[in-house]
Amino acid sequence: MASVNKVILVGNCGRDPEIRYLPSGQAVANVSVATSSRRKDKNSGETIEDTQWHRVTFYDRLAEIAGEYVKKGQPIYVEGRLKYGKYTDQAGVEKNTVDIIATEMQLLGKREGMGGPGADDGGGGGGGYSRPAPVSRPAAPAQRPAPAAARPASGFDDMDDDIPF
Questions:
Q1: What is d(CA 155, CA 165) in angstroms, rounded to the nearest whole number?
Q2: Are 19 and 28 in contact (CB under 8 A)?
Q3: Is 74 exposed, middle or buried (0-12, 13-18, 19+ CB in 10 A)?
Q4: Number of helices (H) and strands (E), helices first, in the chain?
Q5: In the chain, what percentage of residues exceed pLDDT 70?
Q6: Over the chain, what is the mean pLDDT?
Q7: What are phi and psi of 56, to 5 degrees?
Q8: Hey, which residues does 107 pair with through a beta bridge?
Q9: Beta-sheet pairing, 94-107 with 75-88
Q10: Of the candidates 118, 132, 137, 129, which has an alpha carbon nearest to the alpha carbon of residue 12?
């Protein structure tokens, strides 16, 4: 039977990424991402916010991109898998860890230092989140439709525009 280990986070970066290089030359970047949920307390009626912190690790080119563009407080989309581990602290106590090994990332929010629609120009119009392409997958080359003469006849060109429903 197949199994799935997949995590999707949308949250805010808690700190700037720490980037380092392994002896093999592989880039590794670590960042913490905060996610929050809100609920109303049944007894008091007040809103309670619950914030969870997640340790995210990026590798290779994705680590270099995260190190260059991800900043503290920035909203981010991360997709990856869970990795559990153990270590012994300085006092000799064994601790468990949960890391998210990122496979995809998207920066959310306004782009800094760029003009045009959606830029943070203080005008109060537009704005919101931008949706850049995922940075972990190369973009497929755009394909143009073949000219009409080169397309095979589908038999639909001579149909009326009247649709019976």
A1: 20
A2: yes
A3: middle
A4: 1, 6
A5: 66
A6: 77
A7: -120, 135
A8: 76
A9: antiparallel
A10: 129
Task: Provide the Cα torsion 155, 160, 164, 165; round to 10°.
Answer: 80
Could you name the CATH architecture of 7-107? Beta Barrel (2.40)
Which tokens hold the place of 114? 């760029």
Beta bridge partners of 85: 97
For residue 110, the Cα-to-chain-centroid distance in whole angstroms is: 14
Distance of alpha carbon 132 from alpha carbon 118, whole angstroms: 13
Domain ranges of the chain: 7-107
pLDDT in tens, 36-72: 998 888 888 888 888 999 999 999 999 999 998 999 9
**DSSP of 22-80, one letter per residue?**
-TTS-EEEEEEEEEEEEEE-TTT--EEEEEEEEEEEEEHHHHHHHHHH--TT-EEEEEE
